[in-house]
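Question (not urgent): is this output format expected?
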Amino acid sequence: MASSDDRRLSVSLVDVAAGHEAEFDALSTHFAAIVIRKEYGHVEMVRDEAVPLRFYAVRYWTDATAAERCHADPEVQALTARLYRVARVTHVVNGVARRDSGRLLDDRRAHAEGDRRSGFDRRVKNVGRADGERRKGDRRIGPRRLRERAEVDLVGAARRARENADAAYSHFKVGAALESGDGSVTTGCNIENATYGLTICAERVAMFKALSEGHRVFTRIAVVADTEAPTPPCGACRQILWEFGGNLEIELANLTESKGKHQLKDLLPLPFDARLL
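Got this back:
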């Protein structure tokens, strides 16, 4: 091992949701085939015999450039988005990260992500504080905890984004929160203009922000307005969401409750897209 190149090894901890083992097996097999076929390297999926439904995904990259190509591969990104629906993934080792001595904050953040609740040293038994005793301040929030909270936080993020809306003409504020395949959330709000025609909706603001930050795979979006009836995306927003997000799940809510979930294909049944060009 002393002679091995640790920059070619990446390891992730994968906790599969109960009842989704078959789907996970299919996804992992497909991913391994892509990695070999496109000469990114090879993958081993190691089962943790002590913990049911836990696996270690070990990727041996050809080199750092191959790893970067793999992460940017649309086919891989689509698989990753599906994986996050059936499993929690915690990145433990990233041996192909490029070193940059001038980015000390990023390096510190990378080391901090593998906290005591994640990785090979993760505790199985509860050895925390006594009953009734609470930690002061916010607990540390790592990638896994963010993903656990995603189901309840997306609408909340949209509500908070709505407060930033610039709706000086309509006085109708809307907030949106868009979830990417890696579990990150990008928010948007409506921005109005004196010419009216240059006004842009919250959903498009969120999508354009996410695209500008490098995201290309999306899973769902929440839209919030202060109305009793649900407020669905307008036609222009549906087109943009379909163009860049595909058949997203769309949750509509107001300031107090969810008003239902829809698939974009049901809101835009006959979309115009690149297949018609």
